[in-house]
Amino acid sequence: MFIKHSDSDNALRSLWRLISSIRSRFSNCIHQQHDVIALLYISSLIISPRVVYNGNQLLEEIRNTVNLSPKNFVCLVRTTAPSKLPRHMRVLQKQAIDLLRDRCYTVVYHPSYEFLNHAKFAVYYQICYSENIVYHGKYYGSTNLTVTDLAYRREGEDRWKL
Fold first, then answer.
1. What pTM, to 2 d.p., does this model score?
2. Among 25, 72, 78, 112, which is least packed by CB within 10 angstroms?
3. Residue 65 CB neighbours (<10 A)
4. Are 131 and 34 in contact (CB under 8 A)?
5. DSSP letter string over 62-118?
């Protein structure tokens, strides 16, 4: 598990390495017209559309990877229903879900009716039948996929950095 340090972006860097690795491997198989299938399962209590690393938005990177071949890539996201969050987070949660919904199966749960899922992880499997190989990756983090949780504050500064 990656524990987020208050003065570090270690969780964001770890998650970004996984997403970049997924894109690279999947893209390679698609460009070589391999027989391939990929599965990405993401779980987070809260998700924000504003997570950016090196100028790239995390959710757009996920969407762009799925878009390489939607028939070969299954993306599943599990998160909280926006209606259960405070007003500001409700808006961000809805935006994040709307960004992902057309490319990922998106399951929202309502903590009043179901078990509250605090799990924050991403699990990835890719089977390339052309190469007879299975790729896999995982991210188990201590933070939600939001700017505030993945960012850090530098001493003496009053804003969050990425």
1. 0.83
2. 112
3. 23
4. yes
5. HHHHHHT-GGGEEEEEEEE-GGGS-HHHHHHHHHHHHHHHTTSEEEEE-TTTS----
